[in-house]
Design goal:
Helices cover 31% and strands 22% of the residues. The protein is α/β, with parallel strands linked by helices. Strands 1-7-4-5-6 form a 5-stranded parallel sheet. The chain has a two-stranded antiparallel sheet with strand order 2-3.
Length: 116
């Protein structure tokens, strides 16, 4: 599966977030994020989803939310509880972007590192 990618903005010491917010945010980064992810699948942790305005899924993308909470529901997103479930939800040729947060990124890094 060559279609699993990660996109993340980092600060100088490689941090990606603090207190539920991104540590780096600017218009150029956001335009790049939108151009890469729009029309594709995004995979994120629940806390990342909740950090978005209104805790709403990203528009014009298929949203997959990874959570350990068995009761969590989100209109407009697919909720999964394991990395394996998230990967199984993808079509073989579907491009998916892991967009955060830290736990989700660290969980997918070993898998993405094995990809070509």
């Amino acid at each position: 599966m060559d279609n699993l990618k990660a996109i993340v903005a980092v600060c100088d010491d490689w941090g990606i977030g603090a207190n539920g917010d991104m540590v780096v945010s600017n218009r150029a980064d956001m335009r790049h994020f939108v151009s890469c992810t729009k029309g594709h699948t995004v995979i994120m942790g629940r806390k990342t989803l909740e950090s978005f305005p209104g805790a709403r899924p990203l528009k014009d993308r298929r949203n997959i939310v990874l959570t350990r909470d068995p009761l969590f529901l989100c209109r407009g997103a697919e909720v999964v509880h394991t990395i394996e479930e998230a990967l199984a939800a993808l079509e073989p040729s579907e491009l998916a972007w892991v967009v955060g947060g830290a736990k989700c990124m660290s969980s997918f890094c070993p898998i993405a590192a094995k990809r070509k």
